TrEMBL record:
EC number: 2.7.13.3
Organism, as annotated: Paractinoplanes rishiriensis
One MF annotation (Gene Ontology) recorded for this entry: phosphorelay sensor kinase activity
Keyword Kinase attributed: yes
Subcellular location: Cell membrane
Protein name: histidine kinase
Domain Histidine kinase: 244-453
UniProt keyword annotations, A-Z: Kinase, Membrane, Phosphoprotein, Transferase, Transmembrane, Transmembrane helix, Two-component regulatory system
Amino acid sequence: MTRRLLFTYLSLALVVLAGLALPLGYVYQRSEQQRAFAQLEHDAEVLAAFMDTALSRGNPGQVVLLAHESAHRWGGEVDVVDAAGRPMAATRPEGATPLPAGDLHAVLAGQVQISSGMTEVAGVPMMSVAVPLHPGNRAQGALRVSVPTAAMNARIHQFWYVLAIVAVSVLACGALVAVGLARWIGRPVRLLERATRNLADGAAAPAAPAVTGPPELRRLAATLDATATRLQDLIAAQRSFVGHASHQLKTPLAALRLRLENLEPDVAAGGEANLRAALVETDRLATLVDTLLAMTRAEHTSQPSEPVAVADAAGERAAVWRPVAEDRGVTLTVRGPDDLWVRAIPGALDQILDNLLSNALNIAPAGSTIAVTWRVVAGLVEVHVVDAGAGLTDDQRDQALQPFWRAPGAAKGGTGLGLALVRKLAEASGGRVRLDAAEPTGVDAVVVLPGIG
């Protein structure tokens, strides 16, 4: 943002400077040219007056002497012709190409009183002025003075250089002001961006208000700060309600199950199925409450991560679930390096593996294999639990990590919170979870955790 603001300010300053400096330079150049021609016309008329006096006294030699002296003094060329257009004096070296005499003839013919223009002598740019020798009456001849434009051009170039230096100085000052202004505006914007990102990431602290910058940004920062505080209060209240409600439900559910079990001897044979169904639903509700409590603890945990050996955790959880897998005709394999360690909050990896293995066993067909593997990828440890079930579509895999989502046709009894709990535990440990498609069928549940060493 700072670069864009700086580019905008400097572009505007450059346009303004160009709009002022270019016309000013052009006006000065034209004015300097007009002043130089006016001075040359004055000098030519003074010289013509002296030559006219010399001719009136019958002294043409004086005309030649005046021509050479003036040409030497001005560093240019002087040409003089008589009333018939014949050369009377010329200061060019012998053999040099004569200049066109059109301006002299025009002055002699009375077409113009003074003729001026730009010409070139031996490759040198010059300005020339032609005047009559006897103005007012019939001219006795005509005089042309040509001087180099170097002095005039030097003054013009010097002015352009001064303009350029001033423009660069103004642009530099404008750049300093623009940098300060861009930082003044950009700093609170960056603070707001950081605060918004922290809020989106679930940071506990509210957004810090911007103490500098435009009033509009300060008001926006205060509004964002209030919004962040309000959102965190609402989220904290929701989590507190879920935690307290789940905790308060545990005891009544346990008492309800005990009463249902005590009713078993008194239930007639026809009602035993309903009693067992009630017990199953009670167990499912108790599992749901336990999972909600686990998710609440994962969101609010302040426990530091600890080193965990992946091979030990995977081996222990596989040993627990292997009897269940054998009862269902499913093979459970564990494979990976023995020296890989990860950082995770206490008990998180065990719960993650329990939930993933439970889900995999619920969908794995008899005769299939569930593989638990782990490896290092880009400095992180990936733990894979791969089943050979029917698999999920891309959209279903994205939705499966959301709370209470269940796949179409899933068996009854699930809560839809297992994968959501896995995600919460992984994120609390500084990791993440994704679901990939397995080959040829099934789901590859990938847990990525920070590695050690």
